[in-house]
Amino acid sequence: MNPRLDLLQPYPFEKLKALFAGIPADARPGSGLREISFGIGEPKHPTPPFIREALAGSLDGLAAYPATAGSEALRRCIAAWLERRYGLPRVDPATEVLPVNGSREALFAFAQTVIDGARPDALVVCPNPFYQIYEGAALLAGARPLFANSDPARNFAPAFDRIDPALWPRVQLLYVCTPGNPTGAVLSLEDWKHLFDLSDRHGFVIASDECYSEIYFDESRPPLGALEAAHRLGRGFDRLVVFSSLSKRSNVPGLRSGFVAGDAALLRRFLLYRTYHGGAMSPPVQTASIAAWSDEQHVRENRAAYVAKFAQVTPMLAQVLDVALPDAGFYLWADVSRTGLSDTEFAARLYAQQHLTVLPGSYLAREAGGINPGANRIRMALVATPEECLEGAARIVQFCQSLPGGA
Description:
Blueprint: H1 12-21, E1 36-37, H2 49-56, H3 72-86, E2 97-100, H4 103-114, E3 123-128, H5 132-140, E4 144-151, E5 157-158, E6 171-177, H6 189-202, E7 205-209, H7 226-232, E8 240-245, H8 246-250, E9 258-262, H9 264-277, H10 283-293, H11 297-318, E10 331-335, H12 343-354, E11 356-357, E12 359-360, E13 377-381, H13 386-402
Parallel strand pairs: 1-11, 3-4, 3-6, 6-7, 7-8
Antiparallel strand pairs: 2-9, 4-5, 8-9, 10-13, 12-13
Helix pairs in contact: 2-10, 3-10, 4-5, 4-9, 6-7, 11-13
């Protein structure tokens, strides 16, 4: 067996399952309540009917093998969306766009393409807290993760400038998530300039995970994207790729549809890897994806639903927790310190007493520089119906007020 598999940590939801399994049955007064989950970031808004119809109406495509590069029509559609969304003068659909089966598998596979596993000192920089796929991808590619802790003073953006300068020459790949999971932080143009300068100096590749880019709170201020930042700074896409997905944007997590875009030379090598890996997208999924990327009305309606939920829920929770509206995304990143409980204690007791799931922040981070930046925080995904989100928030308020001192 591959010995690197032993380096992988349990996934956060496995840890959560084990945490809840340790709660004695007689300590679960909330078990009579219906379960509400703020735990997993799985969109629960309805899939738009026109996407379902496009998928169902293209089942004849199952009779043909798809090309790994995807159809020309889909690549053109994605390139056009990138140009509209980020004000880019031109994205070449033939060389700068590659459809993938969701951003998760592509984020993992990309490291296998980029990392030179023959170098035992190779490093992959990850934000901290982070999406655990980055860490697993680095380890299984033969590199070591190097964590950049989030900075609360900068709205939880990763503090890449605090990494030891002596380590940058060993870095081969840097993952960034903007808007961030779980913090919601969006990188600024100044942040991007710093990263591009480091990449130019040391030659590493930047992989920007932007799967939450279309969930934001002000229609006049969409989050800045990596390709947009490169364009605004007067540079090309050298050593830069972005990953995006329809899952959150269009409420189709089961469609497994996304794309990678950016540096044509990197995408040419990634396409070679994916040809052997078997990463071709199903033709009916491609047709449904064209329909989804071509329409913005359903995306605006989706955003409006999140805006309404956050506007109601955030002030309620702010009564008992240190929490504020994020830059973007559909997570609340709350500090539970004032309750007197750790993040794991809070999650376990909340589940036992209120049958409500939240994710301990320490499960989404690693100790780096002597601290775990997720400790004493919880992640709450406001993906359920407005009624469930309001009821869940009310349960959290009730739970906190029942604690000694009333939180």
